[in-house]
Fold this protein.
Amino acid sequence: MTDTRTRIVWDYAPAPESPDHVRLRDSYGLFVGGEFRDPVDGTRVPTINPATEEVVAEIAFAGPQDVRGAVEAARAAQPGWAALTGLERGKYLFRIARLIQERARELAVVESMDGGKPVRESRDVDVPLAAAHFFHYAGWADKLSYGVGGREVAPLGVAAQIVPWNFPLLMAAWKLAPALACGNTSVLKPAETTPLTALLLAEICQEAELPEGVVSIIPGDGSAGAALVREPDIDKVAFTGSTSVGKNIQAALAGRGVSLTLELGGKSANVVFEDAALDQAVEGIVNGIFFNQGHVCCAGSRLMIQESVADVVVGKLWERMGRLRVGDPLDKNTDVGAINSREQLERITELVDAGEGEGAQRRTVACELPSRGFWYAPTIFTEVAPAHRIAVEEIFGPVVSVLTFRTQAEAIEKANNSAYGLAAGIWTDKGAKAFEVASALQAGVVWQNTYNHFDPTAAFGGYKESGFGREGGPAGLRPYLRVS
Amino acid sequence: MALRLILTRHTQGVIRRLPHVDRVGIEERAALLGKRSIKTTAKQQGIRLAVSMVDLTTLEGADTAGKVRHLCAKAVCPAPTMPEIPSCAAVCVYPSLIGVVREALEGTGVKAASVATAFPSGQASLEVKLRDTEEAVAAGAEEIDMVISREAFLSGDDTRVMEEIVRVKEACGDAHLKVIIETAELGSYDHVRHASMLSMEAGADFVKTSTGKASSGATPGVTLVMLEAVRDYMERTGRPVGMKAAGGVSNSKAALHRLVLVKETLGDEWLTPDRFRIGASSLLNDLLMQYQKTQTGRYARPEDFSKE
């Protein structure tokens, strides 16, 4: 008998999700008035895969006349859409939700190809949640007044909706589902670097036979967004993105009587108390900051650990970070994918350099990164002072800054010591402490013993410079309704 | 050891509690690792590795020398037509049959393992448990699978739990000691972690989930909690302790899931039969069937694999 008792080495073989079933066109037009059109005064721009820098498709970007045309189409369609019974509008939304489910695999692969996120996340988080949002608001469409305390409701009219590149399909669903359920029509502008899944969603709207003009999807860069919010014939702007752009939009809308919802940046505190279940806290920290390469507005980027357990937690975290699998977003075993764009990579690099320059201790996981594409290995900063830029500014990458605190009061004070107030995490085994701290934190979302969990029934939104207005649940109806 | 026990007894009231385990969090992590995609060569190697870690087990009142000899033959050479399939790690039986096992396995490298200490309930005096252990070792057991006293543990007497393990360990001599904490009877992940820590402190070479006689066994959550305890103990003391998942791991998918838990918690150093075992009876044929499928592309019939 041969000696079979030698050491067996076991590694995961590559497990790439095949893109063969994806039917992408070479070129996409603007989706206006129920059909794909060539731009009138826009351009055509290639969209690339950030993991390979290869062109995925060519995309029409809207010019000012195209923006105007989309708004006109939305205006023309709005009375008819609002005149449908809630039940009828709900049917369309249910149809869209089911079509998202039917095309889930394709959407997941395209989301990962266009944006760089691991297919495990697009498959298990982005796409199912997008469908869930349509299902949720489909159910509300014929019960709107119950969502606002039994009062009379009417739609606002035409909504201009601008979504970011970190969750392209999911953010489109967050915006479109409540707007349509409430009887508004929409002009949606996807982000410059990630327009593809929104365009697939446009195809889904066609397949669902959504009336022409109810949804228009016009890819473009910042100038298209700026033109859209300055269009005179809009009633609502919903924007998710950076705080600086959000401020510009608010200035542009001043005095115009246009309703506004802003979901902006964050520097969310993830607070670990000494009585927490530490191993699960470490998982939550990892999920809080390395989920979607840290491209998450509510990322737990300010990790605050009680001093008595700081060394233990940092030790466990560092060990855990070494086990993250960084690489090909289409590999089903990848935990951390590609950075979304060269521009974002430069921003991360600049802030990390600043952190080192200011004297914080940096450690970056030594992992092999592909030679092409945009990558950043998971990084942790210790000995961070509250005044450091990396403790104040949003990095929007896989970089966590660790601060310490001694008491509960200090934890609250430090957590609130930020211009932002989007989300926070609390890790403790004590129920009373969790509620006490949660109610003292200035954050729109507070997670207890978990992080980065989303659900269509839960309201999401910010305090302070993280914006205003809520998305999700019944609270997400109000920004799209006139209540009397 | 005596000094440490005295310290434990006197400081039990004042030392900080062990970190607790969050049920939702641990199960989420364990389930996430169940989604790792194990295909092609990774599946083949993983199955071979799993076979080499199996403690092929029979613990029935109806066990006889004949049945146990069949089992031993299977453990030594699980698949004669597939020579790349390694031997199992051990054969595990009741003490009365350990002599038969030792004889059948002589010179094969497969270990003879016996349960002991009034398995599975552990409801006997310490003297009986020690005698049980000594007899098994004298009859040729190279590994002893003992049960902790759940009676002592659940009534809060950690010291007695540890003392019993210390004494059984002495009675084992050179035999390796696996300590079964019977997770299904402990009632919480906090207890699972605490019992694992007590066992390792008291000298266990392996910590093991279950007897296979309780309502549940080595669930992904329980396995992960114990692996994390092993990792933290290693971190603190430098002594590597093995882990054995027993009960409920009855197909290849479940076995590979456990291996993923090991790989991503303790690392490749624990992916060896010296550090990780799977206690099972029906698992082995499923591993063989799945392995063959990776080669032929189709499933064989159940009757193509020997039943012992």
Observations:
- Chain A is about 40% helix and 20% strand.
- Chain A has two domains: 27-264+466-483, 269-456.
- The domain at 269-456 of chain A is CATH 3.40.309.10 (Aldehyde Dehydrogenase; Chain A, domain 2).
- The interface with chain B takes residues 1-2, 4-5, 7-13, 15, 120, 124, 275-281, 283-284, 315, 323, 332-333, 429, 449-450 of chain A (CB under 8 Å).
